[in-house]
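Researcher: Sequence recovery benchmark, item below. Answer with residues only.
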């Protein structure tokens, strides 16, 4: 077997591997990941409370008090179901802040 035949065969094999890799990449790159939908609801006496909407209301209330939403580094929410209130603590500053739900 001559070296030119060996080189030719090697080039063909490398070319085939590259083509296979390209076609595999093309097939997998077309698939887009599906975003997961996650919602949490709390039911109280037949009413449903969406926790994400509750957090958005807390942020809006905080903004309405003259603060910037971007200044929030931590937000802790405590639900008191019997009072139908959501107490919240912004940036670990203990204050009696709440919204009714």
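Model:
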């Amino acid at each position: 077997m001559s070296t030119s035949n060996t080189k030719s065969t090697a080039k063909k094999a490398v070319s085939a591997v590259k083509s296979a890799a390209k076609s595999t990449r093309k097939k997998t790159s077309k698939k887009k990941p599906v975003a997961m939908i996650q919602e949490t609801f709390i039911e109280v006496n037949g009413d449903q409370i969406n926790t994400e909407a509750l957090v958005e209301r807390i942020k809006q209330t905080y903004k309405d008090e003259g603060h910037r939403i971007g200044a929030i580094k931590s937000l802790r929410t405590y639900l008191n179901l019997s009072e139908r209130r959501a107490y919240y603590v912004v940036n670990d500053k203990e204050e009696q802040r709440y919204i009714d739900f």
